[in-house]
Design brief:
The protein is mainly α and 238 residues long. The chain has a single domain, classed as MetI-like fold, CATH 1.10.3720.10. The chain has nine helices and no strands. The protein is flat. InterPro entries: AA_ABC_transptr_permease_3TM (IPR010065), ABC_transp_permease_HisMQ (IPR051613), MetI-like (IPR000515), MetI-like_sf (IPR035906). Pfam families: BPD_transp_1. It is a multi-pass membrane protein. Belongs to the binding-protein-dependent transport system permease family. HisMQ subfamily.
């Protein structure tokens, strides 16, 4: 009964606060994941088709971002971004400190880290494509854009989906680190509630259960996407 009271949506419950924090967690993870998808696609193209300087730059990006702690990247974007914005405003005559919004800093940091991993997934997915299909498309007179839209993109997407699903789970867990910037996401809200009620075990357990529920739903969605993307392959059995 006490647990239900803590989760109630009344004036003495934390239901609304936890629900809003869960939405914030998903929102920052989704934005970061989408940013990472764009970065990853560009970096993968640089690794596969770019000139030597572009390939070296892409390799340096993935090596560095996969080699340093994610929390450090968040700190760099939040404090470094705030310093840069403050400097720009000071040039325009405005004094004082101007901070980067925690959501923007967090989503960007997750996106930059996620992009390094997604780039490798996209690169690996492209390398398993049947080169004969690409050559057949060129022989049929397909331009680069049509070839990419009709042959390359669908197959890269299908091969990349399992890896992309794992990276989404990583982005979802990384969202808990954004609390260091002051953003009230699920873990931060659980911490606030635990401090207010002196019931840390209950609220951290609730936060863990919500994370598991989001993860389970995400897995179901990606499983459905994999089945849908694999229609017509091996007689429709994937």
């Amino acid at each position: 009964m006490e647990l239900l009271q803590l989760l109630s949506f009344g004036p003495d419950g934390w239901g609304f606060a936890l629900l809003a924090a869960a939405f914030m967690t998903v929102a920052v993870a989704v934005c970061g994941f989408l940013i990472g998808g764009i970065i990853g696609a560009v970096v993968a193209w640089g690794k596969l088709a770019g000139s030597l300087p572009v390939r070296l730059s892409a390799d340096a990006y993935t090596t560095i971002l996969r080699g340093i702690p994610d929390l450090l990247v968040i700190y760099l974007f939040y404090f470094g971004g705030s310093m840069a914005v403050t400097g720009l405003f000071n040039l325009w005559g405005q004094e004082g400190f101007v901070g980067v919004p925690p959501f923007v800093a967090g989503a960007t940091a997750i996106g930059v880290v996620s992009g390094a991993y997604q780039a490798e997934v996209f690169r690996g997915a492209f390398r398993v494509l049947a080169k004969g299909e690409i050559e057949a498309g060129k022989a049929a007179g397909m331009g680069q854009l049509l070839l990419f839209r009709r042959i390359i993109a669908p197959q890269v997407f299908r091969h990349a989906l399992p890896g992309i699903g794992n990276i989404w789970q990583m982005a979802l867990k990384e969202s808990a680190l954004i609390s260091v910037t002051g953003l009230v996401e699920l873990l931060r809200q659980a911490q606030i509630a635990a401090g207010s009620t002196r019931k840390p075990f209950e609220f951290y357990l609730i936060a863990g259960a919500i994370f598991l529920a989001i993860t389970w739903l995400s897995q179901r969605i990606f499983s459905w996407l994999e089945r849908r993307a694999g229609r017509g392959i091996s007689g429709g059995l994937v």
